[in-house]
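ok so I'm stuck.
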Amino acid sequence: MRLYTLLDKVECSKNTDDMEITGITSDTRQVKEGNLFICIKGFNFDGHTAAEKMLEAGAAAVVTERDLGLKNQIIVSDSRMAYGIICGNYFKNPAEKMKMVAVTGTNGKSSTVFMIKQMLEHMGHKTGLISTVQYEIGERILPSKNTTPDAYTFHSMLAKMYESGCEYVVMEASSHALDQHRLAGVTFEVGAFTNLTVDHLDYHKTMENYFQAKKKLFDMSRKAVVNYDDEYGRRLKDELKEKAVTFSVSDDNADFTAKNIVYTAHGSKFAFVGKNVIARMETCVPGEYSVSNAIIAAVCCMQLGFTADRIAESMKNQTGVPGRLEVIYAGKDFTVLRDYAHAPDALEKMLSTMRKFADGRLIALFGCAGCRDRKKRCDMGKIVMENCDFAVLTSDNPREEDPMQIINDTIIGMEDKDRYEVIPDRFEAINKTVNKLKKGDILILAGKGHEDYQVFDYGSVYFNEKEIVLDILDKKMR
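replied:
not stuck anymore, here's the structure
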C-alpha cells in the first residue's frame, strides 16, 4: 500500500516522498523491509529511541511526534492516534462498512455487549463481538487478551468480521483503549455508558481522568445511550446535551425506564417504558444491575432502528454470559456459581443480589488482583463480610506481587475472624470449600469469571474454575 494512502486523514508533515509500504508496526521486534514504523512512547520504552535503528533495519519510513533529524520521518502530534488511523487505512477501513456499537463504563460492559450481540443475531443480523470474555468473528470464537485490543489487532479483526459477512460489530471500549486512542478514526453508530465507580486508578490516578477517558467514546459516536441512575452518567448527559438518550431502573426523568420489576433466582421481568413505547421484557440474569444492563441493550437496539416488540422477543432468547453469575452446579443440596466481579461496586451488587436467594449460607471465595489499585482491597474485604455468611480469602492474579501482602491488605476490612478463612492457594481453597458445602448453601467464586488462567511472577498457568469444580464434585459423588 502507498504511504500517502496510509496517511489519509492523519494530520502530519509529509516531508517525504510517497512510496510503497509493505506493512505497519509499532513493535521494534517485528520491523521488516519496507515497513512503516510508528514511534510510540510507552510506560517502559519509547519507540522514538529506536527510530534510527528501525530505518537501518529496513523500515521505509518512521512516524514520530518530534523532529528526530531522520530521513523519511513523518511528524504527527500524537503517534498513538496516528497509529489507529493508519491501521484503519491499512485494512481498508472495515469499520466504515459495518454498523459499530461500543459500550464503556466500569461494570456491565461484557453482559451488555453479549445481550446486544445475541439480540441482533436473533433478529437476523450477523454480528461480530469484541469483549473481555472472548472475540467472535462470525462463527469463530477467539480468546480475548485485552478488553479492547491494540489498534492493529482491532482493525485486523474488523476486516475478518466484514469478510465473514458481519453487518454489525458490538464491542467493549475500555478506558485504557480510549485514553491510548486505539479506536482512533472509527465512528460508532451508538456509544453507551453503563456507570463509573472506583477502578483503574493505578493507571488514571484520579476519577476525573478516568471519566474523561470514558467520555472520549462519545466524541466518536453519532448517538449516546447513558445511565441516568449513575452520578457520572447524569453529568455525561448534561455535557452531551441533546445527543444523549437516557435510561433508568427507577427514575421517570430518564427517557426509558423499567416498571413493575419482578426478580427471581433465575432472572428478571419488567415493563420497558418510554415515550410512545411499552414492552414486557425478560432477562435470564437475576438482580437490579441485570435489569440495567438489559435496558441499555434494548435502548441501543432501538437507536439502531429496531422496534421495542422485536427487541423484547429477542431478549427472551438470551443465553447469558460465560463467567457472569454463571451456574457451575445446581443440585438439590447446594449451588456453585462463578462471577467476574473484581471491583468493589460490582462485588457489592452481585453479592447483595444473591443474598436474597440463599436458603442456607452465602459463601464468597475471592481474592484481589496483584499490581492493581491497593486502595480497593480493604473495601472488597468489607463488602464481602457485609453481604456473606462466610468468606474464603485466597489469591486472584497475584502477578509480580507477594500473594500474602495482597491478602493482608484485604483482611484490614474483614473484622469478624470467625466468619472467614485464609487459604492462599486458590485450588486448595476451592477444593476445601466445595467439600464443606451444606444443604442450602450458595458458593460464589468471585473475581476470575470466564478467565482460564492465573498470573504469577513466573508467568501464567492454566486455571479453569468451572472444570476444577466439576472435577471435585465428580470425585465427591463417586
